[in-house]
Design brief:
This is Saccharopine dehydrogenase NADP binding domain-containing protein. This protein is an alpha/beta fold and 428 residues long. Helices cover 37% and strands 22% of the residues.
Amino acid sequence: MAPSLLHFKTAAAVAVASAKAAENDNVSRVQLPDKTRNSRVLVLGGTGRVGGSTATALSKLCPDLRIVVGGRNREKGAAMVATLGKNSEFAEVNINNKDSLEAALSDVDLVVHAAGPFQQSQKCTVLEAAIETQTAYLDVCDDTNYAFRAKSFKDRAVDANIPAITTGGIYPGVSNVMAAELVRAARSESKTEPERLRFSYYTAGSGGAGPTILATSFLLLGEEVVAYNKGQKIKLKPFTGMLNVDFGKGIGKRDVYLLNLPEVRSAHEVLEVPTVSARFGTAPFFWNWGMEAMTNLLPAEFLRDRSKVQQLVEWFDPLVRAVDGIAGERVSMRVDLECTNERSTLALFSHRRLSVAVGNATAAFAVAILEGSTQPGVWFPEEPEGIAVEAREELLKRAAQGAIAFVMNKPPWMVETDPKELGLGIYV
């Protein structure tokens, strides 16, 4: 087995870089294998914040790739192509139309589905089209139902010899790989068994990631939270169970709340950890209060209605944009693992700009697929068939370029601004 990220040498275990490095061209280039060096990659939602950030990161990581920006708006597409340069083009694509999709996929090697939100989607149209056209697939899904619906296409993808990864963005995505490495180290190196895995996420404002992220957040407030406690599935009210989590230098302590996120179920089933939960918080603090109030005051049926949520987004988006200018767009994710011998370790990733970090993370998954890391089938990031164990180190390095903090497999006291011993209570 290749050396893991968990064995980074001393200073390399904590990577610190300036925000400027995240925005300029000081990026470690990737030399793809000859057969995929000039691959055509279609980024659906490529005129949006997440898709555009992904296309930009891909063009910097692998300048020889030919990037196809997929979307409905030709004007926005032309602007994106002008930014990316000569190795890019725009394709008008309607992801809800099978013929449009299959035509767009007919001459590309990999499709990156970043056209969310994924909540309330009843079909995996892009994945089905990818299988039909034998095109490698990656999505940035952050919805549990959609993710496991995508997994149901595993056998069809195997038969078509197509590698596919679902939930392959920053969180879920990079966070899943971080969790998988913590669990692997606990079992193989410390000879102990994981008991509790906790995902904690923080984003200042909307993270600069646009109205899609805002819509996703509102839609999640209408979903009952699924968590696991000692192997038992439990259901909880969204945006409850607040914890004050220390994200370390540059972020500090932040309140985070329970949300229904796909990595909880996938980590429980794939990594076989009996207690798993995920929480999210934002800033300024009054946004958390607002999310909590919406959960308590608005019917769940209202928050599950995409058309009504879209109206809320249109009302709130100008205000959110204005506050974003003050709050910034810092992002942090902390993954905590507690084991049977009372051993506690964590993984931590912090970046000054979510809009950059999400592109780096998604691009890292895309490159891993092009390098041949992913086997035929549909996989979660923590499955070794999705991202091979020996490929995890490189993926995390690429995703963490420009990070202000990146830590793997360290005790909490080495990271926290106010260290304390983690208790082993019955909370999730």
